Description:
9 helices, alpha/beta, 282 residues, globular, 9 strands
Amino acid sequence: MLKLSEHKAFGGMVAFYSHDSAALSCDMKFSVFTPPQALDGTKVPVVTYLAGLTCTEETFMIKAGAQRVAAELGIMLVAPDTSPRGDKVPDDPDGAWDFGKGAGFYLNATEEPWSNHYFMYDYVTAELPNLIEHNFPADMTRHGLMGHSMGGHGALVLGMRNPQKYKSISAFAPICAPSKCPWGEKAFSNYLGNDKSTWLAYDAAHIMSNTDGASERPEILVDQGLDDQFYEQQLLTHELETAAQTSGYPLVVERHEGYDHGYYFIATVMEKHLHHHARLLG
């Protein structure tokens, strides 16, 4: 059942919803910005935003400053939570912020106890789009993905693995090679087990370097701040660039002096990203 929990106007409508997720076996929340072009029922293109570690379905709508431009371009924005929630959902046993609740890593877990709830890949690529299509004026044939940090990882992986579903991809400071960084190693070893060959299905750099017909794919846009405290150890942007050179995948990476990992950076480059999606989604 879809339940409206809160809403506010901003050149259209931002609303926060919850529903019972079959994929994750728990109550999930997500937010939707409906642009003014769709308030009469006209179907519009959709961009789904995947947030980073510790974030929720509200973070993007509150902090990214995307609604004004989305309203001008006639784009619906969808932002799911970053993980399953609830008392029955297992969390990091040490209470750390980089694993468990708030850190679903947009994969399907295979290891217990995580495999009972952590199916964010299925949720984002199948259940949530179906929910949006049947409850909102959304043209799901024109669907793009963008995300930040862990969510940038998610946007790259889910987008490249499902080109029939997603026609545009972009990312803000994404985790580009999670199988080679501490965040990814912790998450993948717990969610997927110690066989590192299984990790590669969720490693953006590996996927990009091994994509057949990569040169024919739509261009991916990535922005990265050079004062980002996670840039060198966790994000590994150069791994993605090397992968693009290997396969010929169209990739634009732009680096910015003076910007860190936060939402001021995202808000600064958001307009460019939405125009990127609008161009590819028509």
